[in-house]
Amino acid sequence: MKTLLTQSTREAGALLRDGKIVAFPTDTVFGLGANATCADAVQRIFEAKGRPSDNPLIVHLQDVEQWREAAEEMTEIGKALLQAFSPGPITVVLPKSQLLPDSVTAGLPTVGIRVPACAIARAVIAASGVPIAAPSANRSGKPSATNWQAVHEDLDGRIDAILTIDSTLQGVESTVVDCTGSAPVVLRPGGISLRAIQELFPSAHAATKSIELDDKTVASPGTRYAHYQPKAAVIIFEESNTLAVQLNELKSKSSRCATCWMEGGQLSSSNEQWRLSRSYESVEGYAADFYEFLREADRAGAEFILVELAPDTGIGTALRDRQQRAAGPRS
Ligand code: TXA
Ligand code: MG
Fold this sequence. Notes:
The chain is α/β, with parallel strands linked by helices. The protein has helices spanning 9-17, 39-49, 76-85, 119-128, 148-155, 194-200, 209-213, 243-253, 283-299, 316-326; strands at 4-6, 22-25, 30-35, 58-60, 90-95, 110-114, 132-133, 161-163, 175-178, 185-188, 205-206, 233-237, 257-262, 277-280, 304-308. The strands form two sheets. Strands 1-8-2-3-7-4-6-5-9-10-11 form an eleven-stranded mixed beta sheet, with helices on both faces. Strand 9 (175-178) and strand 10 (185-188) form a beta hairpin. Helix 1 packs across helix 4. Bound molecules: threonylcarbamoyladenylate and magnesium ion. Magnesium ion (MG) binds next to loops. Residues 135-136, 144 line the site of magnesium ion.
């Protein structure tokens, strides 16, 4: 299959409406879209990504008013969170509409909906005229794509088109919140913090790790798979002053060790670095570049990537989750 590169949001929307699968930027990471009402198109997303069929897709809308095309019912919690944080990096899980094929939600009775705070994404959805099912636009298990070139690297020849418009992305996926119960439950941390949600609903809480890791009771199915993993092995360090020790240990095994960390730590400049090392002044900058850094390390042939755990504030909380998964067990 030839993958078309286009800069036209209208063309991308028309292709989506016709059942094609098209990658486009959102406010968080690139998404791989399909017409959510078209079972064949949705099926092709799973094939192109190599995604397990039991992992549900998020449905993207041009505005909150479009929710009836995806959800059966708007809960009070869902309404309040959408009002407060949409458009933005939040996915609200609600009872699923019968209008959508079961494959969109992997057979679950619920559906995650979100309105991206990205004019390009909303123009694409509006041009399609339909709700758009879209996971992140990467091969399953790999780091997400934060520019179209990374999408191309993973999915060229496997998808119909890529919208090649550059835009500023947060670099960490949306917060997924179950809004079907008596309190909001954060299934995946993201751009909207649990603390911000607790300001509206003090009883809001995060799904426990055991829920995420237990196959039978998993709340957000995607969180149990290996995720965000480059080819190189990822090793986390928490304080810069332990880096020198770890680097020396690794150097005895391999000289091809890429490193990324936050400014302001103890990292000694006398440390002999491999050619790929990068530091960040802000946690937002770290989040925006993290997936691309992992990809760059792979391109440069790194064997190990040493990653300083982001500070546990703001978007750093979600970034830490991604960093730990990148370093987690491989499937
Ligand atoms: O920022 C984002 O959310 C990006 C952009 C493209 O919108 N999308 C994204 O999609 O990260 P994906 O497919 O890579 O991750 C979606 C996550 C998975 O962990 C999935 O299991 C969970 O959301 N999810 C989707 N629908 C769900 C549902 N009905 N109930 C529970 N979890 C759900
Ligand atoms: Mg993903």
